[in-house]
Amino acid sequence: MVLGVAALLAVTAGIVVAVSWKAIMSTGPGNAEAMWVDRSSDVIVVRNPSIMNDAVLHNGSFSVGQDGCLYVTVVEEGETTYLAAINPSATINRDAVSDRGISYRMGDTAWFSNAALRGQLPSEALSICQGAGEVFGVSLVAPSDP
By three-state DSSP, how is residue 40 classified? Predict the structure, then answer.
């Protein structure tokens, strides 16, 4: 009897964990574990649901290309410009990029870490956003005091 109750509790706990994990991961349309294309104001944005980043402080700047897509230029990589894939909670418009109380104006120096990319870049992004050949996962970081 005790083993039966323990087994039932273990199965129930496993189901609760699985349902909770799925609820946490369901952040966007379609395949919740992959990137998707979104619009924030009138800017085309690649949303990246990853919470993992490289914990390295990068600097650069954000811009909106002529194609309407969000790009990030990374200074320490020889000012290389990438298509930005950013957190689903971020707000983007033609003036600024904001997330979790951190905000950077377009063209100004921004600080960020490189977020791991989840899944494949959607084909929609490949056909619309042609201002860069690669994608950079962005997780905003507050500027450090000098």
Answer: strand
Tokens of 80: 């290389």
- pTM for the predicted model, two decimal places: 0.76
- Taking Cα atoms as reference points, which of 145, 146, 134 lies closest to residue 73? 134
Q: Tell me: the pLDDT tens digits for 35-50? A: 999 999 999 999 999 8
- Beta strand pairing status for 43-47 and 80-86? parallel
- Give the type of residue at 114: N
Query: Does residue 32 contact residue 47 with C-beta atoms inside 8 Å?
Result: no
Q: Please list, residue by residue across 9-21, b when 16 or more beta carbons sit within 10 angstroms of its beta carbon and e when fewer do.
A: eeeeeeeeeeeee
Q: Is 8 helix (H, G, I), strand (E, B) or coil?
A: helix
